[in-house]
Structures are given as structure tokens and as C-alpha cells.
UniProtKB/TrEMBL annotation:
Name assigned to this protein: Small ribosomal subunit protein uS17
Pfam family for this entry, one: Ribosomal_S17
RNA-binding is among the record's keywords: yes
Transmembrane residue ranges: none
Gene of this entry: rpsQ
Function according to Swiss-Prot or TrEMBL: One of the primary rRNA binding proteins, it binds specifically to the 5'-end of 16S ribosomal RNA.
Record CDD domains: Ribosomal_uS17
Length: 88
């Protein structure tokens, strides 16, 4: 019998650092509506993601997926590289 795991969270972001071995830092932007002024504010958060082949470079647009804890800070994996070097 096959059992399905729960839906894992996915995010699309831009790699801002690849200096660690098999780890990249990914910046994810999202818009939040201000409760009083009704203006949209850009918020960003950074995630450390596991990159097994060290294939990602700074500026790449990547899809990351939630996973089990891999280290103290890493809870995400790079699923695929959507675009290479978005920032020139």
C-alpha cells in the first residue's frame, strides 16, 4: 500500500549566496497588504537550502521545497533551477 506524504511547502526565490558547501541562501519576496493604509508592502525572508550538486550560482531563480531538518538552519532543498543568473 502506498501512502502519500502531506503537501510540502514550495517557494520560488533568488540565490543570494553560494559560498557554503552544498548550501545556498535563497531570498523570497512576497507582498503583504497593510491593515490600515491598504498599501502593499514588499517583505522578504531568507532560507538556507540544500544544493546537493552545488549547481546553483548567485542570481539563479530556484524552486525550493520544505524537507526534514538537515542541519541547525537548513529545512529546505533546491528542487530545480528555473532560470540561470537572473541578476547580471
Amino acid at each position: 500500500m502506498t501512502t502519500e506524504r502531506g503537501n510540502r511547502k514550495t517557494r520560488v526565490g533568488i540565490v543570494i549566496s553560494d559560498k557554503m558547501d552544498k548550501t545556498v541562501v535563497v531570498k523570497v519576496d512576497h507582498l503583504v497588504k497593510h491593515p490600515v493604509y491598504k498599501k502593499y508592502i514588499k517583505r522578504r525572508i531568507t532560507f538556507k537550502a540544500h544544493d546537493e550538486q552545488n549547481a546553483c550560482g548567485v542570481g539563479d531563480k530556484v524552486l525550493i521545497v520544505e524537507t526534514r531538518p538537515l542541519s541547525r538552519d537548513k529545512r529546505w532543498r533546491v528542487r530545480e533551477i528555473l532560470e540561470k543568473n537572473v541578476i547580471v
